[in-house]
Amino acid sequence: MRVRIFLWRHLNKLRWVSLSLVFAMLIILPCLHIYQTYVAAHAYDLLAPSEKRFYDVMESLTAPFINDPAEDLDAVKGNTWSGNFWGLKLSDPLAVLGQMAAGFSLYWPFILTALIPIAVTAFFGRVFCGWICPANFLYELNSNLAAWLQWAGLRTGARRFDKRIKYGVLGLGLLLSAATGSIMVAAVYPPAIVGRELYYVIAQGGFGVGMVFFVGTLLFDLLVSRRGFCRYLCPGGALYSLLGRYRLVRVRRVVESCNDCQKCNAVCEFALAPMTDGFGQECTNCAACMAVCPTDALTFDIRLFDHPEQGPGHLGRRYRREPSDENDANKAAEEAAA
Amino acid sequence: MRRRTFIQSMGGGALAALATSATAANAAASPSARSTKRYLRPPGALAEEEFLSRCIHCGQCGEACPNRCIKYFGAENGAAAIDTPYIEPREKACILCMKCGDVCPTGAIRPIPREAGAILEHVHMGKAKVDENLCLSFQGKSCGVCYWACPLPDVAITVGYMEQPHVTDACVGCGLCERSCIQMPQAIRVMPNRDAT
What we know:
heterodimer, A: 338 residues, 2 domains, two-stranded antiparallel ribbon, 17 helices, B: alpha+beta, two-stranded antiparallel sheet, 7 helices, 6 strands, 29% helix, 11% strand, globular
């Protein structure tokens, strides 16, 4: 008998903490930047009252950790698209691929910044989408909003499309980048847009054009297809799916404790089918299915491939009705145990 | 960016979406010819075409800029330039701190040490040009503000009789003279040089 680690049903909460922290970082970094510019200007007395309040708040928040705001706060800059953490530069693999397409060139210092994200994706799969992506944070909240609207009796979008469309979007985006000589995928990639637009609205005084696109995708998700953008259109999701195709950490369904309740299929934001072992390359290891499973039948496993379909869950009705040798043997064993 | 209100960006976004292919064709043909706007790229930026192919629109240069002079294009300058950084010197000029080059992950803005020699050699944002019909010093009112604003005085700009400014070829185009000009409209402007590195 397999030892089950029940902690895994709480992973989903940890994931929300992670998503919230990343989103909070995207808000706090532009604020720190503004604070830095105030410090650099040496003109506290010339600030407006509201700016002075802002300055005081930021100063009290950062003073315990730093000596010189103008220099020390440079340690963390950027967003999930490309950022700098205490000298460690990290970039989205899509940024590197898009830049390579736009420039027809290899700039190694930049390519190396995507190495860690690529390695993480190769091990853990599409975790960026589920655990880090600031757009996913908003899309999931949007998805919850849709659930509330449904509860209130309104109809939200539930259309389904072909999941392979996003690979086409990725290819088309790279082709367009190559044709125009500018990284076009950055304009249709929500996490890049959200990171940028939060910076624009906080430090630059207003939203840029990307916000129109992003609001469009939110409406698309709400009115046309639940989580439609991530499932069917996101070029970055497509790239992460490809990179995570042979990931080592996979969700596994323990067929012995599954009762075929379908809650995992319903909760999956990416329209996968955990109940029939249908994970595939697009699973983000987000652990939402584990959190909802009433019998703790979902667990993590280290495997290069998914389990092939294991048939109905042993706690479900279908399994008890279906006559088969294995079934009978199991029943005999259970009766013997009883 | 101040004027980049939501409504405007709505219009711009729709326009960009419709005209992506058309503007893209123009952009491929000649990256600097399509704009009527006079803007500078951040100090150390590559030549325009290469710059556009390198820049990943991450916004870190602006976030590093202690002077907040780096702004970002909306759709007004063609689809290829959306979300790329620029400087409008009359609004806020570059102080040549060279932080943007340090933080740029792709080398679209090259890292250049903050020394006069390196800056003079590698920074070519543009070159200041004096309009003698507007300049107070050429109109008999001794001024010289641009000279005092210049981070490279006597190297990039010299003053003669009545503080009349003369820009030399060493000018890197930071725009501090244009920012500080007390004449309205400004009598000294930086003419962008986006095709040299």
